[in-house]
Amino acid sequence: MKLKSIMIGAGIAVLAATAAQAGEGQPRLLGCYERVLVPAQYNVKKTKIKDAERKYVKRNGRWELLEYPAIYEEHKTLIKGEYYVMREIACN
User: Are 34 and 89 spatial neighbours (Cβ–Cβ below 8 Å)?
Assistant: First the structure.
């Protein structure tokens, strides 16, 4: 019985010493992260400058119908500027 209590006491002392050493001077790794840039966000409004149009053009002895798309001008308004976030990655 006495031997058993001595062994338990020794085991507790070893665990306490190990825990005390782990807390002294050695930082513990909690996670790994990378810095990621989040781009700025804009509100974009378009103003039509020129309507779409179709034109007949004579090429290589034949008439071809060509379609030109509408032309727009963009007006940007900044909603939120760019910023960095820390994204968790695997620690290898």
Answer: yes
Q: Quick one: which of 32, 35, 29, 28 has its CA closest to 88?
A: 32
Do residues 28 and 84 lie in contact, with contact meaning Cβ atoms separated by under 8 Å? no
61-89: per-residue pLDDT in tens?
Answer: 999 999 999 999 999 999 999 999 999 99
| 33-48 pLDDT per residue, tens | 999 999 999 999 999 9
Contact 76/39 with Cβ under 8 angstroms?
no
DSSP state string for 45-88? EEEEEE--EEEEEEETTEEEEEEE--EEEEEEEEEE--EEEEEE
Q: How many CA atoms lie within 13 A of 84 on its CB side?
A: 5
